[in-house]
Amino acid sequence: MDWTDFPAFVSFETIPARTFCTTRKIGASLSEHGFGDFRYISETPKKKEPHINLTFFASRLSISPDKIFFLKQVHGSRILSIDTPFVEKRFSLPLPEADAMISSLPGIALVLFLADCVGILLHSPEKRVSAVCHSGWRGSAENICGKVVDKMVNQWGCDPKTLVAGIAPSICGRCYEVGEEIVEQFTSYPDAIVHKNRRYFLDLSAIVIAQMVAEGMKPESIEQCRICTKENSHLWYSHRGEKDTGRFMLGILT
């Protein structure tokens, strides 16, 4: 399947749940960033109307906007459990600062907002537990994705061998140039580092896959779309390609 033909959504065949990744081809145009931009969603006042693009895509998913759960992503390794007590007090709390969520509650959507960083969806078909994980270089250095798998196994009772995952469009190892000080944090992943003409490039998706496999997941259970956001910034927002830009949405319906 050629994912670039999708005007609004892409999805993962590996995951037996409804998954989605928006493009910048549809939705409201809110600023100079263009259509389908979720960048400023965390700034929407809670007591007013939901973010216009959140409302638009909620209608496409046939759910209420208040069933979509998102975070203030901070490039760390905090993992939030979306359980009934959290849902009941959600709107009385500040937007939580974290970079991953796990839940088994039915009928909600767990989402991330991205523009080059690696976005990962994980799912246990047996336990009906789902997770989303945002992993830039800082999150990858802290092994956030490996920690999500570990938490799904040890706190949610999932079998790592039956977990499935999907990796969204993200910046590829050809385009993600980093400094030597960052490369030094990933010496355990030599295959993900390219040193060319005194320049360093890092393959974050390869690192994330290695971290999930290290926790017991099967490599063949991890679906990677292999689309670079910087090389395809006409379809997905790219911070490296555009600097000041919007954010697209990745998510899973539990």
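(ticket continues) Second input and output from the same batch:
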Amino acid sequence: MQTLPPPTATEVAAGIQVVHVGSTASGGLVDARFKVLDPAKLQVLLGTPPSPPTLIVGDQPPLMAPHSSMKGARFSKDQVFFILYPNTRGLVQPGTQVTVAVGQTKLGPVTAQ
């Protein structure tokens, strides 16, 4: 089991910690994993209905998750959930710096695996 670093102050305030970002499926998808730190804060941040986080690489248009990726989502403390994003334009490769935007909050950058 991977030991996570402590969450940043921004992650604590947002109620969500970025656990992993990496390309998968021969580079066609991006696997992003998140840990719920505070379900109430996260729910407020995501909105109603919840809007999934977006992935930002440099000055490129953000990678968007399918709209159905958060349908029926329920969160509990310490839950880890994942979202698969289309790796449009092959932007996310191992070593790429990725910023995760949740609403107006930006987390990272994190280094893609």
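Agent notes: The chain has a mean pLDDT of 93. The first helix runs from residue 9 to 14. Closing as not reproducible unless the customer responds.
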